[in-house]
């Protein structure tokens, strides 16, 4: 049975793609667009990471001008696939005003709000990188470790800074190594 995207177009589609415009991307926007066409995807949504905290590995990596140029070029090269230009913003309580200002300066097709860091001991712990997780989980019960993540996720929802929430179970992706399934 065919599905429909948020814009009412027939699927299948993928709305969480990171190109080389994002710190963790592996292929260009155009390469992904061409692959999407080959796979029969009707729509692809790019959501490049926007990290506004200097402690985050992706801080200041994303260049909105470059991103827009790549989307524009890919749309011209692969007109059969609808390409959406979104971002995945790392939500952190306490910097909502910075996120809001950034969003006002850069209008996107959609915004994914994701939690990649949690308030921990002497600052923020990055929970989206395997190497950083060991210290965070050490000496904590599963509830103690997961609780701050879900608290921050709730704050992200309450902030209204995203159109959609990203990967609700990110903390479990690495927590399963410590605590099991």
**Count of DSSP strands:** 7
- Helical fraction equals 25-40%
Please name the fourth-level CATH homologous superfamily.
Metal-dependent hydrolases
CATH architecture: Alpha-Beta Barrel
Order of helices and strands: EHEHEHEEEHHEH
Strand order of the largest sheet: 1-2-3-4-7
Characterization of this structure:
This protein is α/β, with parallel strands linked by helices. It has a single domain (13-179), classed as TIM Barrel. It is 39% helix and 20% strand. The protein has helices at residues 29-39, 64-77, 96-105, 130-137, 142-159, 170-179, and strands at 13-17, 43-50, 82-90, 110-114, 117-120, 123-126, 164-165. The strands form 2 sheets. Strands 1-2-3-4-7 form a 5-stranded parallel sheet. The protein is globular, with a radius of gyration of 17 Å. It starts with 12 loop residues before the first strand and ends with a helix. The model has no long low-confidence stretch (mean pLDDT 87).
């Amino acid at each position: 049975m065919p599905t429909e995207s948020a814009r009412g177009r027939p699927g299948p589609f993928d709305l969480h793609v990171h190109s080389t415009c994002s710190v963790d991307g592996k292929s260009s926007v155009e390469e992904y667009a061409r692959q999407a066409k080959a796979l029969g995807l009707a729509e692809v949504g790019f959501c490049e990471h926007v990290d506004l905290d200097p402690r985050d590995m992706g801080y200041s990596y994303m260049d909105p001008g470059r991103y827009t140029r790549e989307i524009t070029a890919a749309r011209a090269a692969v007109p059969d696939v609808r390409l959406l230009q979104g971002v995945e913003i790392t939500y952190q309580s306490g910097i909502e005003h910075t996120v809001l200002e950034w969003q006002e300066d850069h209008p996107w097709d959609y915004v994914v709000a994701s939690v990649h860091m949690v308030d921990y001991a002497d600052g923020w712990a990055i929970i989206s990188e395997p190497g950083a997780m060991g210290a965070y989980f050490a000496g904590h019960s599963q509830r103690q470790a997961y609780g701050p993540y879900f608290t921050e996720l709730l704050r992200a929802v309450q902030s209204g800074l995203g159109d959609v929430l990203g990967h609700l179970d990110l903390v479990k992706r690495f927590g399963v190594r410590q605590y099991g399934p």
